[in-house]
Design goal:
Layout: H1 4-17, E1 22-26, E2 32-37, E3 43-45, H2 52-61, H3 72-85
Antiparallel strand pairs: 1-2, 2-3
């Protein structure tokens, strides 16, 4: 099983939270867990073992989120689309 997708989610979490101590572990059954180190060699498990897609979804929702910037033109366009749907 490839874990590139899961490790990319961990890298995004590290950038969002500005904390390089996040890591993951993979069980023998191919399930993933999110871990947080304390800098002294101790780790705390933050998630239950999850399948890769569920793990990536969980990690993407964990921690601080990046607010997507929306321009005035995009906002006006989405409002026009909502008016047409009604």
């Amino acid at each position: 099983m490839r874990s590139t997708k899961a490790s990319a989610a961990i890298d995004r979490l590290k950038r969002r939270s500005d904390n390089p101590l996040y890591s993951m572990s993979m069980t023998s059954g191919g399930l993933f867990c999110l871990l947080l180190g304390d800098g002294l060699g101790n780790t705390t498990r933050l998630s239950e073992p999850l399948a890769m897609d569920a793990f990536v979804t969980w990690v993407n929702g964990y921690g601080p989120q990046i607010v997507k910037r929306v321009s005035k033109l995009e906002l006006a366009f989405s409002q026009q689309l909502q008016k047409k749907d009604i």
